[in-house]
Amino acid sequence: MQRLFFYILLLCVFTNSAVFGAIYKGHRVYVHKCSTCHTDKEAFVKSKTIQQWEKLMLNHGEPLKKLHLKSKKAKKSWGYFNTPEYTKKSKHLREFLMEYAKDSGKIPAFN
C-alpha cells in the first residue's frame, strides 16, 4: 500500500513539472528571442496584466504568434514563431510573462 502511494506521488510530481513552465527558462527565452525587438524589456513585460498575458499565451502561445505574424514590424521574428521551438518553449515564456505582469507587483531583473 505504501509503495502504491509512493508511485502515485512520484507520478503526480513528474506530471506537474512537465505541464508547467519554469520562470527562469521563460526569462532566458525572452532575453534571447524577444528583447531584440522589445528593447525596453521591463516596460514591455509590465505592459499587460496577468489575465491579458494568459489570453495571449493560450494554446501554446497561438494568439501571440498570430499577433506577431500579422505585424510587418515583427518581420524579424516570423522565423522563430514558425518553429517547433516556439511551441515547445511557450509554456516557459507564459510563466515568465505572467510572473512579472503589470498587476503582479514584481520587477524582473535584466542584467
Task: Give a quick precis of the structure.
The protein has seven helices and no strands. By secondary structure, it is mainly α. The longest helix is centred in the first third of the chain and has 18 residues, at 2-19.
What descriptive keywords fit this protein?
68% helix, mainly alpha, single chain, 111 residues
Explain how this protein is built.
This protein is mostly helical. It has helices at residues 2-19, 23-34, 41-45, 50-56, 58-70, 78-81, 84-99. The N and C termini lie far apart (50 Å). It contains seven helices and no strands. Helix 2 (23-34) packs across helix 7 (84-99) and helix 4 packs antiparallel against helix 7 (84-99). 68% of the residues lie in helices and 0% in strands.
Blueprint of the fold:
Layout: H1 2-19, H2 23-34, H3 41-45, H4 50-56, H5 58-70, H6 78-81, H7 84-99
Helix pairs in contact: 2-7, 4-7
What level of helicity do the residues show?
55-70%
Distance between the termini: 50 Å
- Main sheet overview: none
Number of helices: 7
What percentage of the residues does DSSP assign to strands (E)? under 5%
User: Mean of residue pLDDT?
Assistant: 86
Order of secondary-structure elements? HHHHHHH
Uncertain stretches of 5 or more adjacent residues: none
Structural class: mainly alpha
Q: Tell me the total number of β-strands.
A: 0
Tell me, briefly, the overall form.
globular
